[in-house]
Specification:
Oligomer: single chain
CATH architecture of the largest domain: Sandwich
Number of domains: 3
Structural class: alpha+beta
Length: 614
């Protein structure tokens, strides 16, 4: 399962280091039973009673995490180490009495990567959690899961000291002010900036490179050494160069860190993916074939990096001053996630990292994905109410429907401005107007975009994002010479009606053969058969999609189909040859996208403005 989230935490840029800081110490050398001790020396307190808060939700995850449930034995002390009275009032709040004497708070934090008594059914997605692995000496640290804040003092600065084994290195985008072989001290302007910067401690495997004016760091933990930081850097170098061109010729940050944690075995969330931050992204991925891992990182990175635009430089008030305990969600997930997802594919086709057919296949896949969701309320309402169970279940639509909104919006901008502007040009103008430290009002976004473009673009947003009118694929894609058909029926060769699986050796096998059709029965397929060859071609994870596409579209009726499988025969695994005559069945293909070869002058102009010379 692939699952992607984004985290951007923003705040007003003020020189707050004149204020008294929190001084936090986390001692990774003292991890016991998947717990680590945390000590927080707090700024001076003027109130008789204060609340210590752990985050209930962090922006971008769009689900309740309740990090307070991972806290064990929270205690408060004065300067003489006398205990103060502490009362837990909710999952994420502790009330401390006689608080003018408060000096420090101490507690233990549970690892979220593993079960423990009291964890509950709400499992934390690993890129947004805490992994404490003393045995393998690797620690994944999302700071918002370890550290909280005094209510009312969220904007005081933080000094974070990490004690660690000398054999491991902490990779992060946080600014380091002091370091030796076993201790690192980092600074953050306030809780928002601290929460925005994960750290991964592991045996050093890092590589740095300057790309388009930014220092790029890659750090990898691969338990079986299947992937290295150099492998990843080699694979994302070209992508980041293309992204810099796409964003106007320069990357909008001076540094960026890719933290990549590979796991060998199942995860507690049964998911994998990444969580994005202002200057870094944290990945937890299965340890697969090196080529496949590198490509997966590249695909995910293409999405995650573009969050530098939305919401780092373009965001609403709800994100700008995020409430970690009682959050109010923005109406514009389509902008933060949908535009970002679209851009991750659009940059690759526009700058030649893959072809037009590949791009259209991605967009077709998103149309098919959106069909599974109930889209009977406007995207703005769905986004604002994303924490409600019915809408949370639709969250995946931000990557499908949201990206399709962005595609149609891009073409609408190009067409209505006669090619003078596109979506990226509009985003650049908005970034200049707002930037990291100024937020727009949720209800005014459509009007702001209309001011930069025209009434036609504003009307598109009101109808298809603020309203529930379906996206006009046929009209909009037709402007660029792409024929769209909602459905097309044709005869294709059947494979036999069974379900595929992938085993631990990344081999394709028949997982379920209970519903074989006549062709499958004639072939003699059996549950557990491992595919070796299909019409002479080796069957692998990399080749299977092409083999099947060719089988469906090119195989004629009664043509011989020859397949070699490996199965258990008399207690031994043997290769078995299977064959049968092809049978054609009626297949309905939805959302057919076909680029015209002969274009009008206007179609040529729009397609070139949209995709470059394609």
């Amino acid at each position: 399962m692939k699952k992607l989230f984004v985290l951007f935490v923003l705040s007003i840029s003020l020189n707050l280091f004149a204020q008294d800081p929190y001084k936090v110490t986390i001692d990774l050398t003292q991890v016991q039973n998947d717990q680590v001790p945390v000590e927080v020396i707090v700024p001076p307190i003027e109130s008789e009673e204060v609340e210590y808060h752990m985050a209930k939700i962090v922006p971008g995850t769009y689900s309740i995490s309740d990090f307070g449930r991972f806290v064990v034995e929270l205690r408060a002390f004065d300067k003489e180490d006398n205990k103060l009275n502490v009362k837990k009032t909710s999952t994420n709040k502790w009330v401390i009495s006689d608080a003018t004497k408060l000096n420090k708070i101490k507690y233990w934090i549970h690892d979220s990567f593993d079960e423990f008594d009291g964890y509950g059914s709400n499992k934390i997605f690993e890129p947004g959690g805490m992994g404490l692995d003393a045995q393998n000496n690797v620690h994944v640290m999302n700071t918002f899961g370890f550290v909280g804040y005094i209510d009312g003092l969220k904007f005081n600065p933080y000094e974070l000291t990490i004690k660690h084994d000398e054999a491991i290195y902490g990779a992060t985008s946080l600014k380091k002010i002091k370091s030796d072989n076993t201790t690192d001290t980092f600074t953050a302007e306030n809780f928002n900036f601290l929460a925005d910067a994960p750290i991964m401690y592991s045996e050093p495997d890092t590589v740095s490179k300057t790309i388009a004016g930014a220092k790029i760091l890659v750090s990898v933990y691969s338990p079986n050494k299947k992937l290295s930081a150099s492998d990843v850097m080699d694979n994302i170098d070209e992508l980041m160069e293309a992204q810099s061109e796409y964003l106007g010729g320069k990357l909008p940050v001076d540094r960026y860190a890719y933290l990549i944690y590979l796991f060998d075995g199942p995860t507690i969330s049964n998911a994998w993916g990444a969580l994005e931050h202002s200057y870094s992204s944290l990945y937890t991925l299965p340890e697969m074939d090196p080529q496949r891992i590198s490509q997966t990182v590249k695909d995910v990175a293409a999405h995650e990096f573009f969050h530098i635009v939305t919401p780092l430089n373009i965001h609403s008030e709800e994100i700008h001053d995020f409430n970690y305990i009682e959050p109010k969600m923005s109406q514009h997930l389509w902008l933060y996630e949908g535009v970002t997802e679209y851009s991750s594919h659009h940059v690759q086709v526009k700058y030649g990292l893959y072809g037009l057919e590949d791009f259209l296949t991605e967009m077709k896949g998103k149309m098919n994905a959106q069909d599974q969701y109930n889209v009977d309320i406007p995207y703005t309402e769905f986004s604002a109410k994303i924490l409600e169970p019915a809408n949370e279940a639709r969250y995946g639509d931000v990557y499908s429907g949201g990206a399709l909104i962005a595609m149609c919006l891009d073409l609408t901008i190009i067409k209505s401005t006669n090619g003078e502007k596109d979506l990226q040009a509009v985003l650049r103008e908005m970034s200049k107007k707002y930037g990291p430290f100024k937020a727009f009002k949720d209800d005014e976004l459509f009007g702001e975009i209309e001011k930069i473009t025209n009434e036609q673009v504003g009307e598109f947003l009101r109808k298809h994002v603020g309203g529930i009118e379906p996206l006009p694929y046929q009209e909009v894609l037709g402007w660029a010479g792409i024929n769209y058909s909602p459905e097309n029926s044709k005869m294709v060769a059947t494979t036999g009606r069974f379900s595929f699986g992938v085993n631990d050796d990344e081999e394709i096998f028949i997982q379920d053969a209970s519903s074989l059709n006549d062709f499958g029965k004639e072939m003699g397929y059996q549950e557990g058969d491992i595919f070796v060859k299909w019409n002479g071609e080796d069957v692998t994870l990399q080749s299977i999609n092409g083999i099947l596409d060719n089988h469906y579209s090119e195989t004629k009726k009664n043509a011989k189909v020859k397949v070699v499988v490996r199965r258990e025969v008399d207690g031994e695994m043997k290769e078995v040859k299977l064959k049968a005559k092809a049978i054609l069945v009626k297949s309905s293909e939805k959302h057919l996208l076909e680029p015209l070869e002969t274009l009008s002058e206007e179609q040529t102009k729009i397609r070139e403005a949209w995709l470059g010379s394609k």
